[in-house]
TrEMBL record:
It comes from Anhinga anhinga. GO terms for molecular function: L-leucine binding; oxidoreductase activity, acting on peroxide as acceptor. One of its GO terms (biological process) is negative regulation of TORC1 signaling. This is SESN1 protein. The gene is Sesn1. Belongs to the sestrin family. The keyword 4Fe-4S does not apply. Coiled coil: none annotated. The keyword Oxidoreductase applies.
Length: 559
């Protein structure tokens, strides 16, 4: 990705050739030091002297953005030479008496301790290849990638799909693709994704005026707003008439191929917003909220500890006892172990019941309707504290439009029977026909998420988890009114407890309300990698549910 900041070009750092990276680093280093040496003595104008005696770059001098970019590279670049040289440049700037930035927070996720995640530089060969591919393509190793890498097979499929949708040949121009990503992420107030794509939108030549609000974008994109909000919050309301309005609006009309591309992007970013909130993804280091130029508090440790990488707070949080008495921890641990054992026992009993008798079709239909009705009453507390986000409402219209349970207030929506319209038999071929290869990429991603297993559950090995994975997937589709005739929905209540259902429904339907308390409260004895796996199931099941409603409406329009 080619970029300029003044005379500085950063794209050479994405090269696979060490010599090209070295040349780019030399050029960047020279530019940074030239600017630092020019402004450092003139403290009164571009710099302000702080209590620690160092000079803090003012935002307008351009140096601060370069230093923040170097900080990100020193922590998040998969190429060791780039990490080391970036750190060296930052150290040199600090020696000139200019304060350098430091990261805020504790790693890529607010929910997962940094020490339990794969550290850049310590990854195995497979993960390094994924990291290098991602960095070479995007110019960064983002926090979503660093959390998804718990599951490399899925990450590879996800990155391949992202690359195709955003950068390869397709019906929509590049800046439209990123703008649609912004529109989709904004529906869930996901400032993390909005910030990423604002950055990318500008890099591919997008008009900055569009970012002042949807009303400043072309009418063609504004027309997509209605479909965006229905897909995000109430996809069961989409009809062939909505599709017709987009395809037959004279000069601002969409072609079928363009609309398929847009629908896939909208559903991809609605579901990615669910992953972002569901895993507590932190702001990128070089974005707002990811770094600070303020010195750290030194009340608990020496300033030399900071330069040696010790930040105190992590170690305090990681303390085995903290402020909780040992007996309390022991009780919680024992209770959690019992939770795992009980879940495994239920799976065993359900399998035995399956083998002994099969419910009638009428009973199966009744159980689906009961589960669909009960899912309406699964909701998180209204006073839950949401993750902080800046206002992104200017990127979409009708801010009051949100998720509504489809059976409330007497409104009835017919059940969507997968036997009548499915991804495998209908959606896949429609997408592949109008946007070649994308159907195949999505199909692979769905299958990997659904079938992914390491045959483990918490501390137990050699466990068949297929029943549990199917219950999670089908519960999400049930919330969207989608029914599988051959599935016994009675299993869901046996396998998914209330705290887990609250987490699932929040992440899928109102992800911006997800909290760390919700994340911590389900499957307490399970590994973080297993909870990330749950989020992959939520992402793909949600995306497929939205796609089914949109593609069925497109099919009905075409026939």
């Amino acid at each position: 990705m080619e970029e300029r900041e003044g005379e500085v070009r950063w794209d050479g750092l994405c090269s696979r050739d060490p010599a090209a990276r070295a040349a780019a680093l030399d050029t960047i280093g020279q530019a940074v030091f030239r600017r630092s040496e020019t402004i450092a003595p003139v403290a009164a104008v571009p710099l302000t002297r702080a209590a620690d005696g160092l000079l803090a770059p003012a935002a307008r001098d351009g140096l601060s953005e370069m230093l923040v970019r170097l900080l990100m590279l020193s922590k998040r670049c998969p190429f060791p030479d780039v990490r080391e040289k970036s750190e060296e440049i930052l150290g040199g700037v600090q020696e000139l008496g200019i304060r350098i930035p430091r990261p805020l927070g504790h790693g890529p996720s607010r929910f997962i301790p940094e020490k339990e995640m794969i550290q850049v530089g310590n990854e195995d060969a497979v993960m390094h290849t994924l990291f290098a591919d991602s960095f070479a393509t995007l110019g960064r190793l983002d926090n979503v990638t660093l959390v998804m890498v718990f599951h490399p097979q899925y990450l590879e499929s996800f990155l391949k799909t992202q690359h195709y949708l955003l950068q390869m040949d397709g019906p929509l121009p590049l800046h439209y693709r990123h703008y649609i990503g912004i529109m989709a992420a904004a529906r869930h107030q996901c400032s993390y994704l909005v910030n990423l794509h604002v950055n990318d939108f500008l890099h591919v030549g997008g008009d900055p005026k569009w970012l002042n609000g949807l009303e400043n974008a072309p009418q063609k994109l504004q027309n997509l707003g209605e479909l965006n909000k229905m897909l995000a919050h109430r996809p069961w309301l989409i009809t062939k008439e909505h599709i017709e309005q987009l395809l037959k609006t004279e000069e601002n009309s969409w072609s079928l191929a363009e609309l398929i591309h847009a629908v896939v992007l909208l559903t991809q970013y609605h579901s990615l917003a669910s992953f972002t909130f569901g895993c507590g993804i932190s702001p990128e280091i070089d974005f707002e909220g990811g770094h600070t130029f303020r010195p750290p508090s030194v009340s608990n440790y020496c300033i030399c500890d900071i330069t040696n990488g010790y930040h105190g707070v992590d170690e305090i949080h990681a303390s085995p006892t903290g402020s909780i008495p040992c007996f309390s921890l022991l009780f919680k641990s024992t209770e959690s172990v019992c939770e795992v054992e009980a879940l495994m026992e239920k799976m065993k009993q359900l399998q035995e019941c399956r083998d002994e008798e099969e419910a009638s079709q009428e009973e199966m239909a009744t159980r689906f309707e009961r589960e669909k009705r009960e899912s309406m009453f699964v909701c998180s507390s209204e006073d839950e504290e949401s993750a902080p986000t800046r206002d992104v409402s200017r990127h979409f219209e009708d801010t009051s439009y949100g998720y509504k349970d489809f059976s409330r207030h007497g409104m009835h929506v017919p059940t969507f029977r997968v036997q009548d319209y499915s991804w495998e038999d209908h959606g896949y071929s429609l997408v592949n026909r109008l946007y070649p290869d994308v159907g195949q990429l999505l199909d692979e991603k769905f299958h990997i998420a659904y079938n992914l297993t390491y045959n483990t559950m918490a501390m137990h090995k050699d466990v068949d988890t297929s029943m549990l994975r199917r219950a999670i997937w089908n519960y999400i589709h049930c919330m969207f009114g989608i029914r599988y005739d051959d599935y016994d929905y009675g299993e869901i209540n046996q396998l998914l407890d209330r705290s887990f259902k609250v987490y699932i429904k929040t992440v899928v339907c109102t992800p911006e309300k997800t909290t760390k308390r919700m994340y911590d409260s389900f499957w307490r004895q399970f590994e973080h990698s297993e909870k990330v796996h749950v989020n992959l199931l939520l992402v793909e099941a949600r995306m497929q549910a939205e796609l089914l409603y949109a593609l069925r409406a497109i099919t009905r329009y075409m026939t």
